[in-house]
Amino acid sequence: MKKNELISALSERTGQPKKEVSETLNALTDVLAGIGSSGDSLTLNGFGTFKGKVRPARTGRNPSNGETIQIAEKKMLVFKPSSALKL
């Protein structure tokens, strides 16, 4: 499912105009991006938990020439589904 399809589906289910649903979805992604960068967490009962995580810097290898390279630290957002969502 793509973003436009999600907006259409939510609009049909809620009866709200697509523009409002799109604004709400954009606000949600902004909030989730803030959680990822700050390291906080957001728990939605019956859905799951979004948590900010930092992947530490590490040494890697360039596969084309075998040289070692330094990979920088990376902030990321991880999602753990609730037991109700697990298939």
Beta content: 25-35%
Q: How many H/I helical runs?
A: 2
CATH superfamily: IHF-like DNA-binding proteins
Return the average pLDDT rounded to an integer: 91
In CATH, the architecture is Irregular
Helix content: 25-40%
Q: How many domains is the backbone divided into?
A: 1
Taken in chain order, the helices and strands follow as HHEEEEE
Tell how many strands the DSSP assignment holds.
5
Strand order in the largest sheet: 1-2-5
- In angstroms, what separates the terminal alpha carbons? 18 Å
CATH class: Few Secondary Structures
Description of the structure:
The structure is a single chain. This protein is α+β, with helices and mostly antiparallel strands. It has one domain: HU Protein, Chain A. The chain contains 2 helices and 5 strands. The protein has helices at residues 3-14, 18-38; strands at residues 41-44, 48-55, 58-61, 68-71, 74-81. The strands form 2 sheets. It has a 3-stranded antiparallel β-sheet with strand order 1-2-5, with helices on one face. Helix 1 packs across helix 2 (18-38). The longest helix is centred in the N-terminal third of the chain and has 21 residues, at 18-38. The mean pLDDT is 91.
